[in-house]
Design a protein that fits this description.
The protein is built from 3 helices and no strands. The chain is mainly alpha-helical and 69 residues long.
């Protein structure tokens, strides 16, 4: 069995608490009611506006990938 080196253990300990801060608004998006409200708004918009409404919800950098293209 290989012995874990102390330097490696220190490296792991240093990395354990380096998670980035969540984006603004991320905490509220963790709330199931917020998520369901956004989903209902999306569904209602798409039901009324069809594919154009669906595409309007894409991120500005978003894209549709067409098969075979």
């Amino acid at each position: 069995m290989t012995q874990i080196r102390p330097v490696f253990v220190l490296f792991l300990a240093a990395c354990a608490d380096t998670a980035p801060e969540p984006a603004r608004g991320a905490a509220s998006m963790a709330d199931p009611e917020v998520l369901m409200g956004a989903d209902r708004a999306f569904a209602a918009d798409v039901a009324e506006g069809g594919a154009d409404a669906w595409v309007s919800w894409f991120h500005p950098d978003g894209a549709m990938i067409q098969p075979g293209v």
